[in-house]
Amino acid sequence: MSVLDALVGQLGKLRAACLPAQVAGCQPAAGFQPAPRTSRFPQILGRACVILALLAGSAPAQVIPYQRPVDTAPQADSIGGGYKVPPVQKPLPRDYWLQVLDVVALAAAMGVSVWLVLKRRSRRWLTALTIGSLAYFGFYRQGCICPIGSLQNVVVALADPKYSIPMVVTATFVLPLVVALYFGRAFCGGVCALGAIQELVVLKPVQVPRRLDRALGLLKYVYLGLAILFAVKPALTRDFLICRFDPFVGFFRRTGAPYMLVLGGAFLVAGMFIGRPYCRYLCPYGGLLAWCTRLARRGVTITPNKELDCGLCAEACPYGAIEQMRAVRRNCLYCARCYASCPRERGVAS
Which of 18, 184, 226, 297 is the most exposed place for a label (fewest CB within 10 A)? Predict the structure, then answer.
């Protein structure tokens, strides 16, 4: 007996249960009260629903034939309407061991920077390190070994449990801060690619008035707050301001939005006369380094035991980092110009 036959039989019983009972030729006696009859309608209806469910479950699934419409992705010519294929990620990801090598190179460069500035006090060799760092971290690695940009990744990883970052990114962010805690802003001196490209264009720096210099220095903390605020937004509205508005990464990658290339060029032109304007007034990571440097046990010192009070070091510093003939470590960018201008360091004075 098929499921369909069973369903028909149950529906017949349902119909019979709903009709009143009639017996031919019989009439009830006067005063007869028939016993109340319990309706089987709900019971039979439930059985019918169960049978319908079984019938639907036993039906074979519908098979829809599928054929891939195209073998390759549509190209710009076939799409039309002036469509342009978006560029692939630039630069391309590297093998993990190469990323570790980049972190090792970063640590080694900062170690050399500390040795050249605090031990050798050599402006000449520090300039060589600056050129090498600009070539490798800037133009070769295209600005990817960047503690400044990694700040946003670390903030998002702390705020969003679903967001994870590689250990190399964390190390890139932490290493310069650790070095600053002990030796000052060695990363800024001859390692940071953004600082290096500005360092090499300084020609005739002017001294920014102290009050204006301090007021402009607060902008980097405002920028830091905005970068954190936009980084911790939900994923769909999240934005990495530091990376998107990096004024020099377009030069390193030889491509970028025209307005950003113009902005980077404006910073370099201004940097000929105002020492490192981006580093001093806008770099959010520089704000963190400045606070870490306040705790440093060692840093740049202006020959305190042999000071001539000639003021040549203060005139040579393009960053306003020397006050009352002493280096202000939180503002010192490790350029070693003060050593190059000092008669004691050059052996001119006895």
Answer: 297
